[in-house]
Amino acid sequence: MKLEITCKQATEFIVKREEGKLSLKNRVLLWLHFGVCSFCKLFSKQSRLIGKNAKHIHQHLTETLTPEEKEKIVLSLQQQ
Amino acid sequence: MAQLDATKWVNDYSDMLYRYAFPRVNDKEVAKDLVQETFLAAWRNHDNFKGEISEKNWLFTILKNKIIDHYRKASTRLTESLPETSSDPYFDEAEHWTQEAGPKDWGIDYSQPVEKKEFYDILNRCRKKLKDIQSAVFTMKYLDGLDSEEICKELNITASNFWVLMHRAKLGLRACLEKNWINK
Q1: pLDDT 10s digits, B161-182
Q2: How far apart are CA B173 and CA B27, in angstroms?
Q3: A31-55 confidence digits (pLDDT tens)
Q4: B86 and chain A: CB distance < 8 Å anywhere?
Q5: Which of B167, B176, B177, B181 to probe by mutation at the A interface, max A CB count within 10 Å?
Q6: Of B90, B148, B174, which is closest to A21 when you measure between CB atoms?
Q7: Whole-angstrom distance, CA of residue B152 vs CA of residue B177
Q8: Hey, is B91 helix, strand or coil?
Q9: Smallest Cβ distance to A19: which of B23, B124, B147?
Q10: Which residues lie across from B91 on neighbouring strands?
Q11: Using only C-alpha atoms, what is the Rg of chain B?
């Protein structure tokens, strides 16, 4: 069995692993790759961070529609 | 049927709907259009509204369908937007990170949630740079919490398409955040 994977494969594995969709064999290969590749180890942490924080995007959103935009919608309804 | 009050409807629900739509389509104009279309569809079909769910939930159901339609339009263009494998900005010929593209340590605690609003502003700007379909799978996965099977079904794409798109989305967002948030 070939034990070495490329960084491109490793990053694909990382993305699948985040959803629990990586086989045991590939999890072992990824773990071996992490032993020799600090880039992929960082990618793994950063990719997870992005996914975990993305769900908070809406909490940092304060925008609303302007009164004019609301009025436009009201008018379009009244014209029906 | 009781006379519907358009002003009250819009005042009660438009901001709520807009705040739901905007991060999902990541475009203000598109989000406003979808909110308007949602009200119009609800208004026209109000006779069919059975009152089994609240008016608010009914409006959200209509909006969610409109957002899915918006994503589907992106997925019909999928074949054109699959990345070219010949020019890869991240990996060299041996498929290892190039020195330039290799991830740098951000010097933060990766296990802690990021509280800075700036991070989210930049993340949103970075999402805009993704192909529409990459952005759609990312949004459905991380904002709506759907799993890959559900997303493939909604967008009518294969599992292997999904993984290519998600892989590219993550590579793109990571690189863009590093460039604009960490190294600014």
Answers
A1: 999 999 999 999 999 999 999 8
A2: 17
A3: 999 999 999 999 999 999 999 999 8
A4: no
A5: B167
A6: B148
A7: 27
A8: strand
A9: B147
A10: B97
A11: 20
